[in-house]
Amino acid sequence: MISEFQFINHIKKRFSLDRVGDDCAVLPKNAEVDLLITADLLIEEIDFRIDWASPLQIGYKALSVSLSDIAAMGGTPASALLSVGVPQRLWNSGFPENLLVGWHELAAKFAVELIGGDISKSPGKLVLDSIVLGEVPKGKAVLRSGARPGHAIFVSGALGGASGGLGLLQASSPQDNPNGPEANLRARQLRPFPQVDLGKRLRELGIISSMIDVSDGLASDLKHICDASNVGSVLDAENIPIDPNLREVMRFDESLDAALNGGEDFELLFTISESNIPALADLPVTRIGSVTSHTGRLELIRNGTVESLVPSGFQHF
Amino acid sequence: MISEFQFINHIKKRFSLDRVGDDCAVLPKNAEVDLLITADLLIEEIDFRIDWASPLQIGYKALSVSLSDIAAMGGTPASALLSVGVPQRLWNSGFPENLLVGWHELAAKFAVELIGGDISKSPGKLVLDSIVLGEVPKGKAVLRSGARPGHAIFVSGALGGASGGLGLLQASSPQDNPNGPEANLRARQLRPFPQVDLGKRLRELGIISSMIDVSDGLASDLKHICDASNVGSVLDAENIPIDPNLREVMRFDESLDAALNGGEDFELLFTISESNIPALADLPVTRIGSVTSHTGRLELIRNGTVESLVPSGFQHF
Asked: Inter-chain contact B92–A30, Cβ cutoff 8 Å?
């Protein structure tokens, strides 16, 4: 039996479901603007569980995931479609209504308009397909393919929190202090915020050579940049910004692993030439490594030694 | 327990999932062109069954359904996204690959390019979300809202065949003569062809006052036009073009019911002023009735008497 990872990559490659090799497809709109479009399929028990997440959180996250794809291209989201397959057990519960209330809560923050979609009954699980359209000035979408040897690698915010929150949910750990680290970690998993404003600001600088959002995990997403750019990379373990809440509940090596391989942090990972680094001075970003000429090879410097970094891929629960 | 029909209409109305009230959302693209976009969610055991339909047929139909929405606006399809949730039982069977082969077979006929989508595992049923983008000259999309009292109602092709094919599949009737009426009816259900060329030709005439595709059923879709246009309509039973294959396997009243209420024929239903009817002379369309001023009321003239026509809504199997 092939793994899910192998299966999905096989289908993606054979049928170009990610032909453009980027977070969004880019289509010419007019003389000034390109159109961005992305679709994200979220299925109950694969991408969320209704005993962990409220309908408000599920609707919010469905949109957040797609807005993060727009952010990773430096785009401005504009409109969206949402397809929902609802099992009969949820029809009368107010669940679908609350799901759309959660969706609209985030949509309002970015003035995203719901222009269509579909709704159907589902014989099994709750299913969402989130489609977002955005815009970017013509030719200015930040792709994955522009990283060059010698460029610096940066990431926004802190990593590993969403993965830590997932671990707490899986362990059914009790809901304690609503302001404690555990509650913050759960919120990273259940209510991720897309870095749309930062992505746009980075793109406007005009000096970002490649960008992606951290959805599969830092190592996996860095591999996507390396593959698209035909380069390698080396990360410095000491500089990887680990979610401070994670450090309160885990040992360092566990939290580093969560930061490297945990998915769904929805931070922005990007590269920039050394000479342009000063332009990032006021932004909430951290340098974590450098692009190398070792095509396809990821390395990690830990305790002064260089080790090979093998992306474990995003592990669904 | 509310019915599926009630549930879906409630959600649609409350959250504007069909805000535009048309087959596609219309977005301004540039000075010459508007963009059309539509999404259709298809779920195993609701919209198809894998013991009835081959993966080639399922992929083909998923695209066909969305192309029919583009056709109903008079648009030209251009590009598409496809999100697929695949249960593990189908990973190694060649099923997902064949599904995409079927999709591409139809896409090639209309030069539709696959630009993105998503693929995920599904814990239960096979799930497809088909998204198609199209174009139409600026302001020229044919809406549902332009029907006026006195306009004539036309439909393309013949109706009821897809519903008849569904009945045969549900009855597990034996596969007999591959050129017989039963085989033709099954093909109407499993391999529907979208009326893209006809929709475009009708739009180019510049005289179609409203249009929709027959996906829910003639009566239901006519109701959509009446609601959007704030009018009523009267149909003449004798003039409704019933699929000739259906007439070979059913009594007249059964086949008329299939033509009125069976879904998924994907023909085009439209209205036009009496004075413009001569422009339709060479087209495969039939006049079936007239628009009235009785807002929201559907009537059927049968055997010389007028009866009320109540759309039964598309009944999923």
From this structure: no
